[in-house]
Design goal:
Layout (H helix, E strand, L loop, with lengths): L8 E6 L9 E5 L3 E12 L3 E12 L6 E10 L4 E5 L12 E9 L3 E11 L2 E13 L5 E4 L19 E2 L5 E5 L2 E7 L6 E7 L16 H21 L4 H4 L10 H20 L6 H12 L2 H6 L5 H19 L4 H5 L9 H24 L18
Parallel strand pairs: 2-12
Antiparallel strand pairs: 1-3, 3-8, 3-11, 4-7, 4-9, 5-6, 5-8, 9-10, 9-14, 13-14
């Protein structure tokens, strides 16, 4: 409990246990996972905080890494302080205490914190501590629910913590399993995530089954498509359908647009033609977007659009496997671009709209939480 002399900050503790219904649970595929707690914060001046925990990593490869993470959400909708230690990743197999120090100001409303695991390996966490400065500049510890993980994992849920980084959603990642593990020196428990079968998406190589330049092109195409999928796969229908303004496009419609544009470049480069009548009926609205598309592309889960997007990409990869590097250099009759530039443009197009999707995600208003969360009042 805070002392009554703490006047500069009011902290309402939010401990969401496994017994509280999460607004939505999803299972996604990605190269990292995390777990989270949140507290509501309010201060009238710049206030420092400190997060620390014990962590160790056991991995045979060079990719596996872990970190602590903390993010301040502000009342103006923008993010404040953020650090996930990816510039100083934890890779040691020995238990050690790691610390993040940060600062929030009068705009702060929520402090989110936890651990993060990246790529393959076994990642151990224990003994979380969160401290916030009082008006005298002294750090006072805030109670962290299940900080030592003695309340054990059950059905992939961590009591007192949420899977993922969101405030109202719990995100389960297929590539990661979570366990309670006894520490070797006593009978206490730690939290352990295990990541398996994850391919490093930050490396561009020549994909197998293709000629050298085509294989490199495929690696880049797949890298971008995975970024698009990762950006949208956690969205619910409300978020997928959110319309920023009357002239904007919904995120679902933008994924449809990416699929339509790639389908066009398939016939353009593989068959040296434009859309036929049947293809226009299928793709033209998604290609053009606009008012009619805003009315049609809504009310469907993000998986609907992603399945179409993935099916188009499947055909692209099948067709590129039939081509070679010389084909890349060929110029389509009646065009000034060669096939290599055409597929470079497909990547450019996806990258451009990925940025648009990320911007739109940030403008989606928070959903009202139906759960009445407890608050701890502190005298001012």
């Amino acid at each position: 409990m805070f002392s009554k002399t703490l006047k500069t900050i009011v902290v309402a503790l939010i401990f969401i246990s496994s017994t509280i219904a999460i607004s939505q649970t999803k299972k996604v595929s990605q190269s990292w996972t995390s777990f989270t707690q949140s507290i509501k914060v309010k201060t009238n001046k710049k206030t420092k905080f400190k997060l620390q925990a014990s962590v160790r990593v056991n991995t045979e490869g060079k990719d596996g890494m872990a970190g602590l993470w903390i993010r301040v959400d502000n009342t103006n909708g923008e993010s404040g302080f953020f650090d996930n230690m990816m510039d100083r990743p934890i890779t040691s197999n020995q238990w050690d205490v790691y610390t993040i120090e940060g600062e929030m100001d009068e705009h702060a409303k929520t402090l989110n914190f936890g651990g993060i695991c990246v790529y393959n390996g076994k990642f151990y966490f224990d003994d979380f501590e969160l401290s916030i400065q009082n008006e005298k500049g002294q750090y006072e510890k805030i109670t962290v629910d299940n900080a030592r993980f003695e309340n054990q994992v059950k059905d992939e849920r961590i009591p007192g913590w949420r899977r993922g980084i969101g405030k109202n959603k719990e995100i389960f990642v297929r590539e990661f399993s979570v366990y309670s593990k006894k520490r070797t020196n006593d009978d206490s428990f730690s939290l352990m995530f295990e990541g398996k079968g994850i391919k490093n998406g930050a490396i561009i190589n020549t994909e197998e089954g293709y000629t050298p330049q085509v294989g490199t092109l495929v690696a880049m195409l797949n890298n971008l498509s995975k970024r698009v999928e990762s950006a949208v796969q956690n969205l619910d229908v409300r978020e997928t359908d959110h319309l920023l303004d009357e002239k904007a496009n919904r995120i679902g419609a933008l994924v449809m647009h990416l699929a339509a544009a790639e389908a066009y470049y398939q016939v353009f480069t593989f068959e040296n033609r434009g859309f036929n009548k049947e293809e226009k009926e299928k793709w033209q609205l998604g290609l053009d977007l606009g008012k009619e598309a805003r009315e049609k592309f809504k009310g469907k889960p993000i998986e609907y659009y992603l399945n179409i997007y993935k099916e188009v990409r499947k055909k692209t990869l099948e067709e590129l496997a039939k081509r070679n590097d010389e084909w890349l250099e060929q110029i389509r009759p009646g065009s000034s671009m060669n096939n290599h530039f055409a597929w470079f443009h497909v990547m450019e197009h996806q990258s451009s709209h990925l940025g648009q999707i990320l911007m739109l995600k940030k403008r989606i208003p928070e959903e009202e939480n139906d759960i009445k969360l407890p608050e701890e009042k502190v005298d001012n």
